[in-house]
Amino acid sequence: MLDRYLKNLSVEVEPFAICMLDMGWRLTLPGPPVAMLHFIVQGEGWVISTDGQRQRIGPNWLVVIPAGNAHSLETRGQMLHELRIESAPEGPPVHRISAGNGGPLEIVTGCGTVNVRYGEAVGLFDHLSQTLAVDLSSIPGIPLLYQSILSEQEDGQPGEAILQGAIMMQLLVHMFRKLSSDSEFTLPWLAALDDPRLAATLDAIIENPCTQHTVESLAEIAHMSRSAFAKSFHEAFDRSPINLLNHVRMEQAARLLGTGQVPVEQVASHIGYSSRSHFSQAFKKHTGMTPIEYRRS
């Protein structure tokens, strides 16, 4: 199941920042618009969410912060100082943030946002409700993968985005393997796709968004009763089947409009709308822009 799942993933990596904390310092970061990753290069300490949840971190741990969640990194021992970052830094391809005043360097971590999607439409970390920390220290070559991403970002060579995505995919594969072997993992999509009935309905939605799916027709694909399917689907994906169908349609429409080559009428038809005006209304409700405005942006 994991191999099948990984074949349908796409990964986009935004520029990383190098965050450095001296002993006795706390670094507080704003909630990212999409999931944020921290790769711990050196040191031990804590990542703390706004609700007070504390998660221990150490070298070669990969930490995933849910979208919108402000959080802090702390070194071990007594906290004496704090640096608060209110917005994403601007500057060179790899930013450097230093929480300290020249004291002993305790923690170094790579911080960056990553967009991981299943079938190019469904966000892997969309419904992550709490910080996820995975210890990858026992896996050979993990530090080299992270350093390769940084090197690509600093060099700025042609094809860097594709190569960064491929390298990040390797890190994610190791994370998924760890999570799959852990009976207490909390990544919703992995748990849902372990159920072949739900996986089949998700694939039907993503691969054929133009089909006039209903709860009944999707339940039939899953070989479940309507009520049992609707309940299981909502528990797995935190939304109704039709709500997810509409989301997938709009995300695929946005991707097609972004190419600038497909006429709006064809985009509407591709995702199951026979009326351009109805599609435009639905698209504006989803993105805040009409299809033409989105394409121009």
Automatic annotation (TrEMBL):
Annotated Pfam families: Cupin_6, HTH_18
Family annotation (InterPro entries): AraC_lig, AraC_XylS_family_regulators, Homeodomain-like_sf, HTH-like, HTH_AraC, HTH_AraC-typ_CS, Tscrpt_reg_AraC-type_HTH
Keyword DNA-binding among UniProt keywords: yes
Protein origin, superkingdom: Bacteria
Cell membrane keyword on record: no
Keywords: Activator, Cytoplasm, DNA-binding, Transcription, Transcription regulation
Domain HTH araC/xylS-type: 196-297
Coiled coil location: none
GO molecular function: DNA-binding transcription factor activity; sequence-specific DNA binding
Entry protein name: HTH araC/xylS-type domain-containing protein
Species whose genome carries this gene: SAR86 cluster bacterium
